[in-house]
Amino acid sequence: QPVLACADGKFKDFLLAHLPILQEKYWPTLWCFESRLQTVFASLLRSRLLPNVKYRREILKLSDGGQVALDWFEDGCPHDAPVIIILPGLTGESQAEYVKCLVKAANSIKLRIVVFNNRGQGGISLMTSRTYCASKCDDLSEVVTHVKAINPGIPIAATGVSMGGQLSGLLLLLLYYYFLLLLLLLLLLYIYFRLILGNYLASQQPSAEKLLTAAMVISVPWNVFKGTESIEKPVLNLLLNRHLANGLCRNIERLKRDKVPQGPWNLEDVLKSKTIREFDSHYTTKQFGYKDVEDYYTDATIHDKLHKIQVPFLCLSAADDPFQPLEAIPVEEANNSKNVAIVITARGGHIGFLEGFLPFFQEQYMCRIFMQYFTGIFGPVSELYLHLQRKKTSTKKR
């Protein structure tokens, strides 16, 4: 059964009343309980089984001359249905398999979705030398303000997912053999288990509280220092690290294609980056004005900022996440927060959470918790939502 870390109060009472999944035991897929297998096979299964989503695209021009793609999916939803903004992971975009999984789940409960593709993602050109990083939330702030402006009087929520992207062929091959070895072991035994949003909620008060009704994150890197250390461990974690670094470098290569002037960094040094830490050292710190990687990671980490969050904020983490170990999850801080709740499963990997012997024949765990949470938030008798509305009304009157 998952652990729920949250202070006693209205939010915790709401979760216990509206999320029956919290009273159930999470049983990871038997043949795929190891954390990295969960991470890989969840991505592989979703990418093979979920067709591409036909979005309605909107290009939003940003105040500094940049642009982002907003992909809307509203099929079969009332025109005044609540809107959920989805933030993909590090190298993800609107057709990432975990995004499509959440879009399908939201559509099944008649909620409208808009996917916020970061600069340079989703197939659009870069207009400036700036891309994005975990600590800067001004792009998200502009997106939230825009979505609220074109949906006056309609509740807006947000969901962030960390570290997405397809897996390289080499990694899949290695894990394929790893999977076969694990399956053989099970047979023998038988003759016998997305940051930017968090920083926005912590740093943009009280505007975030006015614009967003609720928020949720899945597999968030709470402590960037510990997460980086974990993903640099050989061999499989380091391979995942290099794959993500390659994705970031490919994004920077688009600056050449789009003929964007170079920023305060050396392009050749950036493209030589083999790990996320090297990429952050060569590009992110210089582009966003940080002294060094430690300075950037200190600003980006959110495990010590929970007390600043005033919007109901549900977080799903796995204790065996290869990118964020259990000791990095701020359980004690959440237990002292009335607005932040962390659901921690023993297994699940990173954006994995596969369950059932044949996980592709049923709704997956993260989608079930996503649906129950937002059904409760936007339900007609949600006491939490009514409380929030009364609170906002009284604030306006004052």
UniProtKB/TrEMBL annotation:
Gene Ontology biological-process entries: medium-chain fatty acid biosynthetic process; medium-chain fatty acid catabolic process
Active site per UniProt: 162 (charge relay system), 321 (charge relay system), 350 (charge relay system)
Highest taxon listed in the record's lineage: Eukaryota
GO molecular function, a single term: monoacylglycerol lipase activity
TM helices/strands, residue ranges: 170-193, 370-388
This protein's record includes keyword Transmembrane helix: yes
Cited InterPro entries: AB_hydrolase_4_CS (IPR000952), AB_hydrolase_4_sf (IPR050960), AB_hydrolase_fold (IPR029058), ABHD4 (IPR012020)
Keyword Membrane: yes
Keywords from the named record: Hydrolase, Membrane, Serine esterase, Transmembrane, Transmembrane helix
Family: Belongs to the AB hydrolase superfamily. AB hydrolase 4 family.
Protein name per the record: Abhydrolase domain-containing protein 3
The species this protein was found in: Diploptera punctata
